[in-house]
Amino acid sequence: MRMTGPVERVLTAFLSDPAAPRYGYDLMKAARLPSGTLYPLLARLEQQKLVGSAWETPQQEGERPRKYYRLTGEGVRIARLELAQASARRQRAPARPGRPAPGSLG
Amino acid sequence: MRGERRLLRLGECLVRQACRRLPQEIREEHYREWAAELPAILHDPQVRPAPWRAVRMLVYAADTLRGTALTPGWVRGPRSRLSVAGDLLFWVAALVLVAFNSWSVAQAPGDWQEYLLPAWSVLFVAYLIRKRVHPVGRMTALLYTGSTLTLVAWNAAQGNWLNYVFAALVFIPLPILLLAWWLRVAMPARGRHALRDSG
User: Second label for A71, Cα 20 to 30 Å away, from A54, B70, B117, B147?
Assistant: First the structure.
């Protein structure tokens, strides 16, 4: 799995409560991703067996069943590992020299 | 919300359009999944005011069109003869424009307008290349068509007879191509009724 920004955001959203079922729209809001990015990403995670999906039973008559997603056991393990590695990589990376503040030296 | 059913229908229409591009075996499930989120977006109490929810829902539905091209299993369907002919026509027009505009620059290197036109025609070729690499480009095509028409009309207004020829080349086939595109998008197509029934 290649750790891109969107993947990182989706995994972070899942890990905020790994046991909770997450709908597409719910994940869109949590990860701040548009549907055109989120759904292909979920499909790839599902192909890799990191995410499982199921259809909910509608609570009320006339309501449409929605599909929800959840990290698999393996998905939780890999997501935690990948996010930790990504965080470590960011800490190791040298900080970019920023623009000096007005009035400061350098 | 007023007009809620119409909005939902429009959203469903966009999602259906997106799903038509998916393989048959995953099409129905994706349509059910994506269309089921539309009422949830439209009734989301966290998003206010109501018109903003409607915009979000339509953006969600429209973006699934982009998403289908990135979904695993997506395959470009067989292309119609009209589509192939349209592409060929655009390629010929683009290459002729590049050649003619480059020739014009060579003839009158001092005129700034002559530099603008080759740059624009190279953009035309770049668009066609992009379209080959990435198939999601209908909106870009419409935007580009609009700018093409504007530019051609502006050129024709300058009074150069050659520009009238180019104007005719663009004005005559474009409405036909746009009508064909609209017919393909808006009219019932294979698999659409199955999706409607299942949704």
Answer: B70
